[in-house]
UniProtKB/TrEMBL annotation:
Keywords: Calcium, Membrane, Metal-binding, Mitochondrion, Mitochondrion inner membrane, Repeat, Transmembrane, Transmembrane helix, Transport
Domain of life: Eukaryota
InterPro entries (alphabetical): EF-hand-dom_pair, EF_Hand_1_Ca_BS, EF_hand_dom, MCP, MCP_dom_sf, MCP_transmembrane
UniProt protein name: EF-hand domain-containing protein
Residues in Solcar repeats: 196-282, 292-377, 388-476
Recorded family membership: Belongs to the mitochondrial carrier (TC 2.A.29) family.
Pfam families: EF-hand_7, Mito_carr
Example of a GO cellular component annotation carried by this entry: mitochondrial inner membrane
């Protein structure tokens, strides 16, 4: 052992409290941890060193920031050895109290029923299978229970303040979070609904979607042009497509249709989540506490999505028409709606509705199935963690969104062409099946995927931008990424 480490262990021995005195092995472990995290060996640990040293634990920046803020008693922005030891000492005392609270029969081990009861505290009812999955992520000795050392090591660097934080952390490991608009909405507890946490989180999602869509709007407009005009009228690479749009309407033309695309996020999100809650209530019947299984959540989510799409569908038509408009054709969203109503009637606002509804099920089903498969595959390979972390979740979201989009794209293409029929000069008014037949006959199977390249290009930046904005908006709205209130409530 080095002289420096021996000195650190002596310091630990002098700093122990009366009621929680770690043994010699624990004190040695703290000293080794500090030495491993102190990459530049200057006797202090900063945020960058924490990020590098704890990267394998899948912790968010918000969680690491809380560790530094809580342990940094002299407010210099870093943790010296004394502060590091004091933080771990106090944190392990908290974890010990939490462990005894969850261990209801006081046998020194936490089982599946204990986990279910802990989650029930904040109104989250999970099935025995889900509780078992949580337990297995922490059980290292194969006893199908969690002892004190497994509990302590698992939560050592997770900034938890009380039992609700423990329950929320477990809950977060099971929700579907792709960084974009959710295919199957997140579950919220009764406490979260009453506190306003749910609406703050939804607002963060709306803002994230708005920034993400605005950032990728030029690619989205290019996709619509290629879908509608096909290979005969809109040849060339993505670069030539952008050049065409710039020549026709200048730089701002790249964002045509983005206004209505952003405006529809808030009502669609609110309708979807409200419908989802009502559908869940109906599916549960008399057993109000029953946990919906994955396939039931999928059905409820798909139905909620269909209801939301039905109500806001006229805005989808407006978005397509504004995407395709020539300079000076419409003065704005209201003028576009007025002209469609006058020339084509109210029915025009639901053109392409059938293929749009048909595309929801394959997209939602494949997106959810691939996401859950990838996530569970990661969990099986990393048995010490129940939360895959930001990068893994973003990767799962990007891959699952791509697979869902590939499956539903032909229907999305037909929907867009039907929405645009009156705006394309000389375009025949064909039904969904007639359009499909014409595309395959004239352009081949590849024609069903016309415009898919810009759509594929926008997935990774859309998911990434959405997540970054989502995280910062949650912090600004008073809820950090682990789901706790910020500010004075937790210091």
């Amino acid at each position: 052992m080095t002289t420096q480490r021996s000195t650190w262990i002596l310091k630990v021995q002098c700093q122990e409290g009366e009621h929680f005195v770690p043994d010699e092995e624990r004190r040695k472990h703290w000293a080794e941890l500090f030495e491993q995290l102190d990459l530049n060996k200057d006797g202090r640990i900063d945020m960058l060193e924490l990020e590098a040293g704890l990267a394998h634990r899948g912790l968010s920046n918000g969680c690491l920031k809380k560790i530094v803020e809580t342990g940094d008693t002299n407010q210099d922005g870093v943790l010296d050895f004394e502060e590091f030891v004091e933080y771990l000492h106090n944190h392990e005392k908290q974890l010990k109290v939490m462990f005894h609270h969850v261990d209801r029969n006081k046998d020194g081990r936490i089982d599946v029923e204990d986990i279910q009861h802990c989650l029930h505290i904040i109104g989250v009812n999970v099935s025995p299978e889900d509780a078992t999955r949580i337990m297995l992520s922490m059980d290292r000795d194969g006893t199908m229970t969690i002892n004190w050392s497994e509990w302590r090591d698992y939560f050592l660097f997770k900034h938890l303040s009380d039992m609700e934080d423990v329950a929320r952390f477990w809950k977060r490991s099971m929700i579907l979070d792709t960084g974009e608009q959710l295919t199957v909405p997140e579950e919220f507890s009764e406490a979260q609904k009453k506190s306003g946490y749910m609406w703050r989180q939804l607002m963060a999602g709306v803002m994230a979607g708005s920034v993400s869509r605005t950032g990728t709007a030029p690619l989205d407009r290019l996709k619509v042009f290629r879908q509608v005009h096909g290979s005969s009228d809109f040849r060339g690479s993505a670069l030539s497509g952008f050049k065409y749009m710039l020549n026709e309407g200048g730089p701002w033309s790249l964002w045509r249709g983005n206004g209505v695309n952003v405006l529809k996020i808030a009502p669609e999100t609110a309708i979807k989540f409200s419908a989802y809650e009502q559908i869940k209530t109906v599916m549960r019947g008399h057993d109000e506490t029953r946990t919906l299984r994955l396939h039931e959540r999928f059905v409820a989510g798909s139905l909620a999505g269909a209801i939301a799409q039905t109500i806001i569908y006229p805005m989808e038509v407006l978005k397509t028409r504004l995407n395709l408009r020539k300079t000076g054709q419409f003065t704005g969203i209201a003028d576009c709606a007025k002209q469609i109503l006058q020339r084509e009637g109210a029915a025009a606002f639901y053109k392409g509705y059938v293929p749009n509804m048909l595309s929801i099920v394959p997209y939602a089903g494949i997106d959810l199935a691939v996401y859950e498969t990838l996530k569970l595959s990661w969990l099986n390979r990393n048995t010490g963690l129940s939360d895959p972390g930001v990068m893994v979740l973003l990767g799962c979201g990007a891959v699952s969104s791509t697979c869902g989009m590939l499956a539903s794209y032909p229907l999305a293409l037909v929907r867009t062409r039907m929405q645009a029929q009156a705006s394309v000069k000389g375009s025949p008014k064909l039904s969904m099946l007639s359009l499909l037949r014409n595309i395959v006959t004239q352009e081949g199977i590849a024609g069903l995927y016309r415009g898919i390249s810009p759509n594929l290009l926008k997935i990774v930046p859309a998911v990434s931008v959405s997540y970054v904005v989502y995280e910062y908006m949650r912090i600004m709205l008073g809820v950090d990424i682990e789901g706790r209130r910020g500010g004075k409530e937790h210091g």
